[in-house]
Amino acid sequence: MNSHQGEMKGDKQMNTSVLEERSKVPATLSARALSQVKNNGALWAFFLLLLINILITPNFLQIQTLYVNLTQVATVAIVAIGMTLVIASGGIDLSVGALMALAGTIAPMIFLSDFAASWPALGLVLAIVVAIAVAGLAGLFNGYLISVYKIQPIIATLILFISGRGIAQVLTNGELQTFDNPSFEFIGTGRILGVPVQAIITIVLALSIAWVIKRSIYGRFLLAVGGNEKAAELAGVPAKKIKMLTYMICGLLAGIAGLISTAINSASDANQTGQLMELDAISAAIVGGVLLTGGKAPILGAVLGAAIIQLVGYTLLANGVHDAVAMVAKAVIIIVAVYLQQVKGAK
Amino acid sequence: MNILTRVINLPGLKRKAHASRQAEGVLIALAVITLFASLRYDAFLSEYNIMTFLAYNSMFILIGLGMCFVIMTGGIDLSVGSVVALSSVVVAKVSEYGIEVALPVGILVGVTTGTINALVITRLKIVPFIATLAMMLGARGMALVISGNQSVDVSWESNFTQFGLGKMFDFIPWPVVTMLLAFAFCWLLLEKFAFGRHVLAIGGNEEASKLMGLEVNRTLFGVYVLSGALAGLSGVMLASGFGAGQPLEGLGWELSAIAAVVVGGTLLTGGLGSITSTLLGAILLGLIFNILNFENGLGTISFSAYWQSIIRGGFLLVVVVIQAKMMNRKKAH
């Protein structure tokens, strides 16, 4: 029954994308982003949260508050973008937290090595490139299992969820790697024109991926595969390649998030980096309006979803509510968001 | 083949054949590993090792059994790990009244969370993955709120810890007895009662089951409540065996349980499954840790505990790839 509903929703989605394509109304990215978020009410929720905070949270309207929230939300938002793509393809990725730990562990191992000691600049570049590439390869591995062996995404990504962090822990023997490398730490603690670097990375990634989804063949194909894979394949969409690419992008983004998280702490912790990230990313993607049945990829919605979840946590924390209550609140938000989506979908 | 024959066939011949083949596969793997380990390590087949191993793994087997039912309906229950933590915290708080009170309370905690899961899934029509994901967060949050963010000491005056540490006839640990009873209960439920057939029919094809007049919602209700109740029971074992209610324990247990069910050969698409293979699957995954411990004890090589997750993941990979190859070949024919 669920799959049946999914197909119907997917078809509807495909129709609308065709219509959009035909009308070719020149709309700016921001206008389209606005309509994207207005549809699922997430933007209203966000403004409501802002208003509540301005009214009740002490010192909310200060630049410091903005910085704290931007710093904390960046990694979730980046991973949520990848998760949105994966969910749009009709799948799920449980391994993102483990891949963050893996990338976050590999980078310091490289720039702390003897080689990097003699070639600091090259060592740093290698550290970043190799760490992200490993996460991307891991994502590709997920995609391979899912598209070639037809293993359900939840099980296929469960494999790396279990062993990915294990590999990171074995590499470091489970110990903390601390480092003092200002150029690497820049991606976690630096600022450009006063804006935290990771916030800039997040925005650049979000805008460029949103653009790719709207404008490229890949975007069209992804939504087609997520909407109705069989139909898409019959229509000549290379569904397997699209899926592999999607999981790879999700892995790459998790790798970037892992590096940022490590840079913020000036230490890599294979046990803690990215812990429970898969849940936060899935929650953010859902609040952002992605359909679990696939076929819709609201990238900017995912960023907004991450911001909403972050803001709820911050609101409760800043007003002295127990940290754990925020988890319960998050649970309620997820259910309400999905329920509202479904009610709207049924109309 | 039309839908009706599929539904009728699945609970019968086809399932039996599939289940027995799976059970065979797991059993052979288990036999090989046990033989290898018993030849290599002197103490492997000692009473102490077997009982300790089973007692510790009883917690995982319990949630694996519940997960097996959920997966057979085509669903998933991600909340069990958090429910174990919540139950352990709650029963630690009431441990002074003895196990007679704590045991039902722990199960009740699981029944409550299971009921909420079931209501969200059947009434709000939210997919099990999301409904139980929310409960995963919710139950964990409740556990942390109730415990005030730290582990809750249990009472050592009452008979509460006897349940986790004591033995029946001074021989079989109580958790093992409980686990075996739960296993027998689940086996009967699946094999001998209409409920079991309904579970498989729904997993085979929910829409067709509805058309045939099966009480789909009631069956789903039963499945999520059962999964919750077993998780609650597992929480009682945790608190009683380790002497504390632990709000941060049980992280990722739901995924180990899913792995055990999958290694046992139950398909995630529902409609097929076996309680016995799930038990064997859970034991097989548990053995990996046991063997690593022994291997380190020999002192020839030293594996850190972290290797166990890599090996478990690798094991899962091998199993699902073999399964997928078998399934795809069948489809090709």
TrEMBL record, chain A:
It is found in: Cell inner membrane. It holds the Pfam family BPD_transp_2. One of its GO terms (molecular function) is transmembrane transporter activity. Belongs to the binding-protein-dependent transport system permease family. AraH/RbsC subfamily. The chain crosses the membrane at residues 42-61, 67-87, 94-113, 119-141, 153-172, 192-213, 244-264, 324-340. Keywords: Cell membrane, Membrane, Transmembrane, Transmembrane helix. It is a multi-pass membrane protein. One of its GO terms (cellular component) is plasma membrane. This is Monosaccharide ABC transporter membrane protein (CUT2 family). InterPro entries: ABC_transp_permease (IPR001851).
UniProtKB/TrEMBL annotation, chain B:
It is found in: Cell inner membrane. It comes from the Bacteria. Pfam families: BPD_transp_2 (PF02653). Keywords: Cell membrane, Membrane, Transmembrane, Transmembrane helix. The keyword Transmembrane applies. GO terms for molecular function: transmembrane transporter activity. It is a multi-pass membrane protein. The keyword Nucleotide-binding does not apply. The chain crosses the membrane at residues 23-41, 53-71, 101-122, 129-151, 171-190, 220-244, 250-268, 275-293, 305-324. One of its GO terms (cellular component) is plasma membrane. Belongs to the binding-protein-dependent transport system permease family. AraH/RbsC subfamily. PANTHER family: ABC TRANSPORTER PERMEASE PROTEIN YPHD-RELATED-RELATED, RIBOSE IMPORT PERMEASE PROTEIN RBSC. This is Ribose transport system permease protein. The lineage of its organism: Bacteria, Pseudomonadati, Pseudomonadota, Gammaproteobacteria, Oceanospirillales.
